[in-house]
Amino acid sequence: MLSETKPTPRKVYTPRSLPLHVLLGLANLAFSYLSLTSAATLLFAPVFFIAGSLLLVNALTRRLVITSDGISYYTLGVYAIHSTWENLARIERINLALTGAVRCLVLAEPGGKGWAGAVWMFPTELVGRAIPLGNTWANQKALEADLRANAPQIFTK
Fold first, then answer.
1. Whole-angstrom distance, CA of residue 93 vs CA of residue 140
2. Are residues 10 and 129 in contact, defined by beta-carbon separation less than 8 angstroms?
3. How confident is the prediction along the chain (157 residues), in pLDDT tens digits per residue?
4. Which has the closest alpha carbon to 20: 73, 77, 58, 49?
5. How far apart are the C-alpha atoms of 91 and 131, rounded to whole Å?
């Protein structure tokens, strides 16, 4: 009899700061609307509108998806990185613009698709080859356990 392997269920990890980003996005949109009521604050309306819109879009589209086939990272609805478990090379701290060193999954072969400007903070040579892990994902311990179970090669040195 053939042994059956149970496929890993699809798991979605969202940023821990999701509620805060939604709240800030909505607050910016409200300030944008309120800025329209006075000539003195009219110039701020587009700034609040753009900031609020970007915060909401980022909050609602940024996620890590884990399946039996691999891992995917989505951001801003215009950029994604997909990788099989075998394509994951290592975990490394990468210096990102504005945030400093962040723990990232580094892919052996590029897997990014979409507008690379959405990940402008990465060094050029790692665009399409790095998935940020940091300490920003909700349920970080479960994410680490999933990575250890599916890609043990990234934890060996």
1. 17
2. no
3. 444 555 557 899 998 888 888 999 999 999 998 888 888 788 888 999 999 998 898 888 889 999 999 999 998 878 899 999 999 999 999 888 888 888 899 999 998 888 877 778 888 888 889 998 887 888 888 999 999 999 999 987 6
4. 58
5. 9
- Could you give the angle at the alpha carbon of 113 between the alpha carbons of 100 and 84, nearest 5°? 85
- The model carries a pTM of 0.80
Q: Which two tokens stand for residue 59?
A: 């909050």
Q: Extract the tokens encoding 70.
A: 């691999």
Strand partners, 132: 104
Question: Widest CA span of the chain, in angstroms?
Answer: 77
Q: How far is CA 4 from CA 41, 85, 90, in A?
A: 64, 19, 29
C-alpha torsion sign, points 87, 129, 146, 70:
negative
Query: 49 exposed, middle or buried (CB, 10 Å; 0-12, 13-18, 19+)?
Result: middle
Element (H, E) at 31: helix 18-35
